[in-house]
Design a protein that fits this description.
- The complex is a heterodimer.
- Chain A is built from 1 helix and 1 strand; from the N terminus they run αβ.
- By secondary structure, chain A is mainly alpha-helical.
- Chain A has a domain of 32 residues.
- The radius of gyration of chain A is 30 Å and the shape is rod-shaped.
- By secondary structure, chain B is α+β, with helices and mostly antiparallel strands.
- In chain B, strand 3, helix 2 and strand 4 form a beta-alpha-beta unit.
- Classes of the chains: A mainly alpha, B alpha+beta.
- Chains A and B meet through strand 1 of A and strand 1, strand 2, helix 1, strand 3 and helix 4 of B.
Chain lengths: 59, 195
């Protein structure tokens, strides 16, 4: 009986720690996963240097 | 406007009034406006003004308050051109014009969620530009590719035109196929409250 009690005293906290660690590792993996990057669109690399600006209120 | 040849950037905002720091919820006397960066070697300012008059009758409903119909010149040279084009349009129509033609005082950028409004309503295509620019809203707003895609999602383009330029948008094959499928179809995204 005494041995079973000791097993519970040690085992339950160990289980809690293991569960929290698993959750933490999972969360860390999710947040650090890199966002896939794409190259700039070709059209965005050839914008003319000299542009003029027009402003309209479209009604 | 984002699909007009020679137009490279567009942004929406507020102008035409004196109210400081306008927001969509608190516009004061400012009107909703679109600002266009264009290549004058491809399309002239006068041609853009003419295009505006073709899209909206300059002698028709002048709009009111936030929906005012305005041509806001950047400088005296643009003002002269706009006034000449307005006068010519008025003579052609034989009616007094209702559009206001005046110098721009200040253009206030609208909130990010108004910029590239149609594109933002399409998660597949928006994800492509997020992958290019991350959360850099200025880069998304100023992207020519995003402007063009926004125009197609908003049903302003043709399939033939899209076929000519889609390769320049930098989209994945799946996103290209998705965009092609949208053009010519009816979308239910609703109109942007800003132009």
């Amino acid at each position: 009986m005494l041995r079973f009690s000791r097993t519970l005293k040690i085992g339950i906290p160990l289980l809690v720690v293991a569960a929290l660690t698993a959750v933490g590792v999972g969360a860390a993996r999710t947040t650090t996963e890199p966002v896939p990057r794409m190259a700039p669109a070709p059209i965005d690399t050839r914008v003319p240097k000299t542009l003029e600006t027009a402003t309209f209120g479209m009604g | 406007m984002g699909l007009v040849n020679g137009v490279w950037r567009t942004r929406v905002g507020y102008a035409g009034g004196d109210y400081q720091d306008p927001t969509y919820a608190d516009l004061g006397d400012q009107a909703e406006c679109v600002q266009i960066d264009f290549d004058p070697t491809v399309i002239s300012y006068g041609e853009l003004v003419d295009l505006m008059f073709a899209l909206h009758d300059p002698a028709g409903n002048a709009g009111y308050g936030q929906y005012a119909y305005l041509v806001l010149a950047q400088d005296d040279e643009q003002l002269k051109v706009a006034q000449e084009r307005a006068q010519a349009a008025g003579e052609k129509l034989g009616k007094p014009l209702t559009v206001r033609v005046e110098l721009l005082k200040k253009f206030w950028l609208a909130e990010d969620y108004h910029q590239k409004y149609y594109l933002r309503g399409d998660p597949t295509l928006l994800a492509q530009f997020r992958a290019m620019f991350g959360n850099d809203e200025a880069a998304l707003r100023d992207s020519t590719a995003a402007m063009r895609v926004n125009g197609y999602v908003g049903q302003s383009g043709t399939q033939a035109r899209l076929a000519e330029e889609i390769a320049s948008f930098g989209l994945t094959d799946a996103a290209r196929a998705h965009l092609v499928s949208l053009v010519g179809e009816t979308t239910s995204g609703g109109a942007c409250p800003l132009p």
